[in-house]
Structure formats: C-alpha cells, structure tokens
Design brief:
This protein has helices at about 45-50, 75-80, 95-105, 110-125, 125-130, 140-150, 170-185, 200-205, 220-225, 230-235; strands spanning about 5-15, 15-30, 30-35, 60-65, 65, 80-85, 160, 190-195, 205-210, 215-220. By secondary structure, it is α/β, with parallel strands linked by helices. It has two domains: about 1-80 and about 155-235, 3-Layer(aba) Sandwich (Rossmann fold); about 90-155, no CATH class.
C-alpha cells in the first residue's frame, strides 16, 4: 500500500503552549490507524494540526505526495480529507436530511448528492427513518451517526474521527466501531481514529499509535496492546 498521509516532525500547540512534539506518522492507503492516549496526550491537537484547524509551529504534513502543511480546512475537504470532531459537529437546528446536504456542500451534482445520501442511509438506517427530524433532538448515538454521515458526503479518501465513542453507551460504541470498519471495507476509505477507549478500537485497527505528553511512544501492531500489561506500561 502507498502512503496517503505522511507526517514528519510535527510540532503544534496553542499560543506559547506546545502540545504535540515532533510527531512522525504515516498512513497507507486503505488502512485504519487508531491513536490512543489519555486526556491531554495531544491526540486532538494532532488531528487539528493535520486538518488545518491550527497551524503547526514546525514539521510537515503531506497528503497523497503533496505538502499540505498549514493549508486550511476548506482546501483539505476539497482534496479528499474529512474530520468528525468531538461533540458530533452537526447543525442542531436543522433536520437530518439538510445536515447531510450541507455535509456535501462541495458536491455540485444533485444526483451525486442523492446517491451519497443513499449510501449514508444504507450504513445508518435509523437516519433514513428520521431524515425529517431536527438534529438536536436525536439521541447522542444518532447524532454521532449523522456527523459521520455528513463527513462521508464528499466521499473523502481520508476520514479522521476524533473520539467518536465519547459519551455513548457500550452498545452504541460497538455500532459506531462496526460502521467505521464497514466504511473502510466497502469504500476503501483510509481512516485515522482517535480514541481513549482501546478495547473495540484495537479490534478494527490495522495499526495502533499511542501518544503520551504530546509525543508518540508506540507505533505498531494492535495485537501487542491487547495485552493489558503492555497497555498499562504505555499508558
């Protein structure tokens, strides 16, 4: 598999506070890579810097062989990147269908929008049933499904998910993780999954990364981290 995303020496933070330090990471086309770590480990800052929501102070981000360091989110979306942030990231006052349409704002063909919406409904049948319902009145799990559906509307090549399981009941976490696996298998989408909860994320990942205090301290087989003793050592 060829490298789709390549990160070298990435350092980023907020103002004078450095949060992520000298991170190197490569995602090959078609991989699911999970990034694990406690709160404050730098996981969210890392994906925000990759996606262009914050500017890296040093280092390089390359996508499909091109340097995209410091490029803004709109250009990244147009180029095939998508981010599902923490907290769902939906339009809470609009209905499900309108949320999905806005997720595909960069798509000009109504036929393509309709086709991609059907894909989302096939993945999350509950959204088809509730397509006229206001987003903010959906359950937490349904809002997360809608947020993922919105991110899928432009048919991204790289989907970044920032803690999609946060605040969800265990059964819903299983459903969300299964949907991530389906997206990868059915559409070949490369996925960077940030998680605090390793148990289910490790089951669907091809590779696991562990961050601690802004640095990458492990990058390798997820099976190694299935050993709780090894996971505790790293955490």
């Amino acid at each position: 598999m060829t490298a789709l995303l390549d990160i070298a020496g990435l350092t980023a933070g907020y103002g004078k506070k450095t949060v992520v330090r000298d991170v190197a990471l490569t995602l090959r086309t078609g991989e699911i890579v999970v990034v694990l770590g406690h709160n404050g480990a730098g996981k969210t800052t890392l994906v925000r810097a990759i996606f262009g929501l914050i500017r890296a102070s040093s280092g390089r981000v390359s996508f499909d062989g091109r340097d995209i360091t410091g490029r803004g989110p709109s250009a990244n979306i147009a180029d095939g990147l998508a981010l599902v942030p923490q907290g769902h990231g939906i339009f809470r006052t609009l209905n499900v269908r309108r949320n999905l349409e806005l997720g595909g704002f960069s798509v000009t063909s109504r036929d393509v929008i309709a086709e991609r919406m059907e894909r989302v409904f096939a993945l999350f049948p509950v959204l088809r049933e509730r397509q006229a319902q206001i987003g903010g009145t959906l359950s937490g799990g349904q809002q997360q499904m809608l947020a993922i559906g919105m991110a899928l509307m432009p048919a991204p090549r790289l989907l970044i998910l920032d803690e999609p399981s946060i605040g969800l009941a265990p059964l819903l976490v299983e459903r969300v993780m299964e949907s991530i696996r389906e997206i990868n298998e059915n559409y070949g989408t490369t996925i960077l999954l940030v998680e605090q909860n390793p148990r289910l994320a490790l089951k669907i990942a091809a590779r696991a990364v562990v961050m601690n205090r802004g640095a990458k301290i492990y990058d390798g087989a997820p099976e190694v981290l299935a050993d709780e003793r090894k996971l505790l050592e790293l955490f």
